[in-house]
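Build the 3D complex.
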Amino acid sequence: MSSLPYSKAAFDEAARALIATTAELAALGWTPATSSNFSLRLDDRHAIITASGRDKGRLTEDDFLVVDHAGAPVATALRPSAETLLHTQLYARGAAGCVLHTHSRTQTVASRLFASAGALRIEGYELLKAFSGNSTHETAIEIPVLPNTQDMTVLAAQVEPLLDAGPLWGYLIDGHGLYAWGRDIAEARRHLDAFEFLLACELDLRRLS
Amino acid sequence: MSSLPYSKAAFDEAARALIATTAELAALGWTPATSSNFSLRLDDRHAIITASGRDKGRLTEDDFLVVDHAGAPVATALRPSAETLLHTQLYARGAAGCVLHTHSRTQTVASRLFASAGALRIEGYELLKAFSGNSTHETAIEIPVLPNTQDMTVLAAQVEPLLDAGPLWGYLIDGHGLYAWGRDIAEARRHLDAFEFLLACELDLRRLS
Amino acid sequence: MSSLPYSKAAFDEAARALIATTAELAALGWTPATSSNFSLRLDDRHAIITASGRDKGRLTEDDFLVVDHAGAPVATALRPSAETLLHTQLYARGAAGCVLHTHSRTQTVASRLFASAGALRIEGYELLKAFSGNSTHETAIEIPVLPNTQDMTVLAAQVEPLLDAGPLWGYLIDGHGLYAWGRDIAEARRHLDAFEFLLACELDLRRLS
Amino acid sequence: MSSLPYSKAAFDEAARALIATTAELAALGWTPATSSNFSLRLDDRHAIITASGRDKGRLTEDDFLVVDHAGAPVATALRPSAETLLHTQLYARGAAGCVLHTHSRTQTVASRLFASAGALRIEGYELLKAFSGNSTHETAIEIPVLPNTQDMTVLAAQVEPLLDAGPLWGYLIDGHGLYAWGRDIAEARRHLDAFEFLLACELDLRRLS
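Done.
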């Protein structure tokens, strides 16, 4: 164990924190059919991430592995999620300390509805203040909607210019779900909850108008 | 402790009551992304209120502070919610013993939909009897919808004439959520639940008609 | 105690059964703002019923009283629900052993939508077999929608001819909610759940068509 | 006991697994009014299945019986679900190790909406990868919608050519609900959750477009 290139204590603590959060997200129905994946930065070279295909409502420490910031598994036989690169590109840039990728019905429906526009603009809500750096509702955010692909290098390359343009707290992938992040698990969760809420309001208003 | 200008025992009891109620409201999804705030009158000069920016599903006694009826913090280093003044104006007038401000999707969507009209009229429901003083469904209530602003003195000034005109059990703020109140926590909760239910029915009927 | 005209043991058992069922219905959000009421037949002269205005998610034995089959309180200082007569008319006729009156959003919205028609016809669902006596989906039921009034004798008089025409498992009151009943608490609950499900499906189909 | 033609230990283990899963499905509201039924393959001649008319949120081992792969009860006085044949035809063909039949509002509404078309085509969702054998979202599935009948031999005969044409992970019955299956209980559940999610998204998109 002593030869691990990361702290086992940090791994254990991160796994516990992610298990608690993902259990809540699974109970909300945001991780259907073993979808979704979750990660936390461990140090300046490593992150912990969920293994591929696990039921997110029943995770144990054995369902996590460590990857480096290029997305390669470290000292493990487990297979990381196919989408690992979308997590680690954020850690490599120092843009996030935690990445939560969920798959709620609202996120998926919104992604399909706004895929052709390429983005969804949201403005005028008090809850825009939930995004780190915002201090008023008198603002607007753009949520990008990227085309889906099974090739993560293509997706990651599309994310890079969005991060350059920043600030960015998350994006949708068409027919797929939402990536949200933050400095730590609490901020990532706050951003995730704000995205879900605002998307749901926008869909409701569209039904009602 | 003995030098506190309010009863510490009353503070403890009020905090316990608010923690229980806010945990229920958080579980319903009415306090997304650390939004919403809650208060209870302590005595004729003081009220207890949630500190700014806390997760409403995990409150402890340390997440509450005391403010006077003008909204100023009393014997605390904690920062009260930015919206404290909307709570304390009701205590200063003797209009309420408890104020619950939530942020449900239904409340937020209704506030946006009826913002330009400035109010929403609801009539003909048995549940109108839930509002203190009503004894029949053969009545109507008006729920005011105020424009949102980060300047609480402006908002509070708009609330004053509505309170003068009374009876009033709550109001919406555009893109923001609902303020509801009552003599005590049970009545405030009953009013809150009735508002949420009636707003949801009205939105459903609009979708269906 | 020995002078009570009903069995205290039967009262205790009935209260426990109703507390368990109403807690489940409250958790579903079908009893908002202390609305709704619930009763169980005790013997050929008495029934147990919820007292007026209690929070249905937190009932204790003290929130129940006994009424006779004409709706008059028996050996109690508690005030029965204003709607007691709608329960006891079913016991007086021998039409039910348990009556569940709830107030879900679906029930309330459906009642308003079909009030002018006076009834809602439902056909072609497998779940129609949930209503006692039905053995196929190739049937239809009519759910009456009665105008609301605070005068229970008027409402009860409107229910009588519906019961004469039978079979009937429940009815809606406009802007108010649903009465459902059965031989015992399990059958009443099965009928209630079937009504809620079928009404929700009908509203969804109306939105989608 | 030693004369049972199946393993009592396998029965006990299967009952425990099905009780846990059905309790979760009941909590989601997918088994209203004692509807729905669930089975697990025991061996190459037997399966365990829920008895008729039980509350799926409160199952005990006594609510299960064993049937052979032709659907006949084995060494039991319990009555199997009327729909047993739809389960056992899958075991007889070796097409499944577990069958979950639920009755959610989304499934029921979708079945009615697409009954006249006879099928619902779903494409472009990342969650299509949840169905065993799919490895990309760039695919489509057809969910058959069969006419409802109380004659299970008629229904089973309609399912046979669909299974021949395969791959198939489930089908809808009009006004009735969904059958989903998999190699084991985890895969059947994953398929069920994916169907529910995708049907809900399709209904949402229909409302929004």
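Chain A has one domain: 8-208.
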